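Let's sit down with a protein and look at its sequence and fold side by side. Please make up or recall a protein chain and show it to me in full. Label the sequence line and the structure token line clearly, so we can match residues to local backbone shapes. Go ahead whenever you are ready, and we will take it from there.
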Amino acid sequence: MLELSESNIHLNANAADKQQAIEMAASALVQADNVENGYLQGMLAREQHSSTFLGNGIAIPHGTLDTRSMVKKTGVQVFQFPQGIEWGEGNIAYVVIGIAARSDEHLSLLRQLTHVLSDEDTAAKLAKITDIAEFRAILMGETIEPFAIPTANISLDVDTQSLLTLVAINAGQLQVQSAVENRFISEVINNAALPLGKGLWVTDSVVGNVKNALTFSRAKTIFSHNGKAVKGVITVAAVSDQINPTLARLLDDDVQTTLLNGNSTEILTALLGSSSDVETQSVEGAVVGTFTIRNEHGLHARPSANLVNEVKKFTSKITVQNLTRESEVISAKSLMKIVALGVTQGHRLRFVAEGEDAKQAIEALSKAIADGLGENVSAVPPSEPDTIEIMGEQIHAPAVSEDHNLPANAIEAVFVVKNEHGLHARPSAVLVNEVKKYNASVAVQNLDRNSQLVSAKSLMKIVALGVVKGTRLRFVATGDEAQQAIDGIGAVIESGLGE
């Protein structure tokens, strides 16, 4: 079985065409000492003889029999091209796996990729994912344990008047769990914590992080540090995007109130949320429909098939969750997964559609379900009304999304991030707190990655921009305090965002 380390995965790559993509893969194999310099010619020759496109957006360029002698050791280099590469005959490759194999070892990789090649949704996710650990796990058919916070990580009613004591308690607990190294401990002890407000403070480190983890300690009574109130400290170790939803919740007023006053169980619930909470955060701007199934025998094979056929009429990505059973979110285009939801009469299903025809799709599903999906339905009205809503829709301020839709009164500015380690959790939180001070709608774009404009009030989306030192960020603001917001953002970035 071929091994794949995260160092061999290259996300968000760019190439003009297929040949350049293959050249990038060959160069990476040379740099990893898998092959000799001439291996590229074999990869190009193989491609001319027969396409290495496998399907579902994946291509596996590799050498010919004549170039096997150039392979020093078996290995792979994986490149993700979110914009897609034309691979011939109308095929688009989003994941390109350059292979160096001495014999037929690459066949084991094909067997490992079976689960991806047979599932369109999984392949589509690989094209867009931004976290290397999650990308690798999906590609290799492995599972990632969901982010969790053990009860031991919550320390309440600590009898202290020292901010450093609270930080030390948190850091020590992270060390007990092997979530951090000694240099992490040194960093958070020696550097100032960041005040979030209301007596809450946060600490983290750009070094010594081993795995995602979070600890929280709260003093018995509120006290002062450098003229600012102290009640509780959150310490974060972060290595992947899985922790981002929890980081985003730290800026929520209700979550902060729970941290200040709640018990351990209430705090854990506030920080981790529910599966449906996480899904809602990930579909801002999508169309959501919540409907009750009226069919007497629920969704057995026939109505499930009719539901899937209705979903497939639309190009939007559509997911569904059985709210009554609190199921996982699944693709609404998979008949097998729909049947596995175990839907009976009266169950509530939540559909989320993302795409150009999302609204039409949800409205069509609403009608199809109300009509019984090809079967007779109960005359008894559901206990809860069906609903359709647009997540994150702006009501009091114009929405900022794409350039050609920008309001005429939008104010723009471009700032360069100077932080040595880019925008990790702490400076991202400072930026979001600054944006939230103003009565304005503010969006931000990573110009160097040509990302989409995203809400600058979302910590999760800020972190996901992948900002490193020297990155140019474009901010677009609308609303009563748009100019003040741009000025404030510029000032806080210039000051280093708390670092």
The first strand starts at residue 9 and ends at 10.
